[in-house]
Amino acid sequence: MLNEDEFCRPTIDIAGENALIIYFSNKTSSNTSAKIQQAEKLIRQTMKSGFSIDIIDLIPSYASILVVFNMLATDHHQVRNKLRLLLHNLDENYDENYNDEQSSIVELPVYYSIESGPDLSVIAKRSKLSVAQIIDIHQTQSYRVYAIGFAPGFAYLGEVDQRIAAPRLSTPRMKVPKGAVAIADKQTAIYPSTSPGGWNIIGLCPIDMFNVTATPIMPVKVGDKVKFRAIDKREFLSLGGELAEGFGKIL
Amino acid sequence: MSFPTGFLVKDPGMLSLVQDAGRFGAYSIGLTNGGPVDSEAFQWANRLCANALNATAIEVSIGGFALIAQIDTTIAVAGANMPLKINHQKKDLWRSINVKAGDLIELGFASQGIRSYLAVAGGFTIQEVFGSTATVCREGVGGLTGDKLKKGDILPCTNYRRKTNLVLPEPFRPKYCKEVVLRTVPSYQQKHFSSFQQRLFFSSEYEISKSFDRMGYRLTGRKIKSDIEGILSEGICYGAVQIPADGQPIVLLNDRQTIGGYPKIGAVSSIDTAKLGQLKQGDKVHFDFISMEQAHNYFHLNLSRFNRQKLHECD
């Protein structure tokens, strides 16, 4: 059964010359997440048959699915119509408990400190909490993997407690180190490799989030739950974590 | 045991990358597309070698690239006007050229445009990763080792010399200039930019900042404001124009992140992102508002013109 307020029809908007985006909701919820997982599965199944040359790939996320299509085979009107039909079928066969069946709980160690998390003090100032309280709040709850993207193995987790939510930096950093555990609004994530980024860094995780030679390539998948565990510097280093020289200062 | 033969990288230059048409179908583990920033020049280089349009070639950015041929084959260079020399003899771009084992192939620095494509008959034979040879350095995926080319690398290819050489006549070659109009479909969070802000965006001139790469081009110019700070992170398509809180647009290209949370005002057509990719710091762009239907028309007209354009035989 669907709650009255959850039941809003998905909207299909333009993203780019060869892409449409389906918005399922304007906020995150496990219900929306379940619906997106099912819609993705449905579109991918159809891609295996008649839709195959029309759709290039999908990017599911918190409340949306980006649908990239092949301009040599179809146009946005055709894709929109096919998606509408699929979404209509989804509404009729929707299973609310879908994503709890296949998810597992993954524990990830984090070295939280001013040294490894240069934005902890900014969040502390904003929230009027102590650094210790922020760390405690961050690792108390478990988070759902809502999306994977931005970079290989970058898992978007949600949602953090409102007290430690923090807006993105107004100018993104040119370089965020591998393993950085960070917060943007109510989202949290681990940077799987060094890259530019605008999230607030609160710690470092020594576990590889993306390793092409490992099986599986990623320790988490969409729908899983993640729980963070605070570790000290010694354990961080013994697990293979690396601290760049003067890391906390240069950032 | 046989060693791969092909071309030996004598000097990798500023940034030279193995690229095919790009990696598609691996978004679910966060892999982006990669591929040639100027797909038109890339396709011309392949056509000049009578290759499939997605054959693996080398994208040379800025210049300073040098190779030594280890086999007899046919090559072609298309794109930015980097001076091409074979054994210190000046040669033309936009045509195929026969080379023999031991030849020294050098590409100098371009005065117009910044990227050119070196293709070889039959394409470079490089192992695909997740369905593509495209190198994305940030991901450590594709190419020979997931990184840009280094001195001493071997670019394998087969002994495959073409019988006739081909040339694209001068009047039909793309012209690279320092100012480009970016035709842009309004999309995504467009409605979170007031009509005044949208008019500002589409009527202002922007300059390429010092941060421009295969991931995206950061522009400087009139600040654009939206009525939201951030959005729930969502899938980013090719050419999307992101407006962070500092109001300075970023046009996202081949190596862009697949998901992001800055508001986006629209997306640039792929014909024009190819032109953008030939610009460098200080060059200028304007955004021009187009509908989705116009974007499709431009795309198909451009494609049809490309397909109809005949190459001439030459010696």
Description:
The complex is a heterodimer of chains A (251) and B (315). With 251 residues, chain A is α+β, with helices and mostly antiparallel strands. Chain A has two domains: 90 residues, Gyrase A, domain 2, CATH 3.30.1360.40; 148 residues, Cyclophilin-like (Cyclophilin). Chain A contains seven helices and 13 strands. Chain A has a seven-stranded mixed beta barrel with strand order 5-12-9-10-7-6-13. In chain A, α1 packs across α2. The N terminus of chain A is likely disordered. Chain B is α+β, with helices and mostly antiparallel strands and 315 residues long. Chain B folds into two domains: 159 residues, no CATH class; 127 residues, Cyclophilin-like (Cyclophilin, Beta Barrel). Helices cover 14% and strands 33% of the residues of chain B. In chain B, the strands form five sheets. A seven-stranded mixed beta barrel of chain B has the order 13-20-17-18-15-14-21. Chain B is globular. Chains A and B meet through β1, β3 and β4 of A and β16, β19 and α4 of B.
Provide the number of structural domains of chain B: 2
> Biggest β-sheet of chain B: count, sense, barrel?
7 strands, mixed, barrel
- Beta percentage of chain B is 25-35%
Report the average pLDDT across residues of chain B: 95
Number of domains of chain A: 2
> Using only CA atoms, what is the Rg of chain B?
20 Å
Shape of chain A: elongated
Strand content of chain A: 25-35%
Average pLDDT metric of chain A: 87
Total strand count of chain A, please?
Answer: 13
Summarize the structure.
Chain A is of the alpha+beta class and 251 residues long. In chain A, 27% of the residues lie in helices and 27% in strands. Chain A has helices at residues 30-48, 76-92, 98-101, 120-127, 131-140, 233-238, 247-250; strands at 11-16, 19-23, 55-60, 64-69, 105-112, 142-148, 155-158, 173-176, 180-184, 187-190, 195-197, 200-204, 225-230.
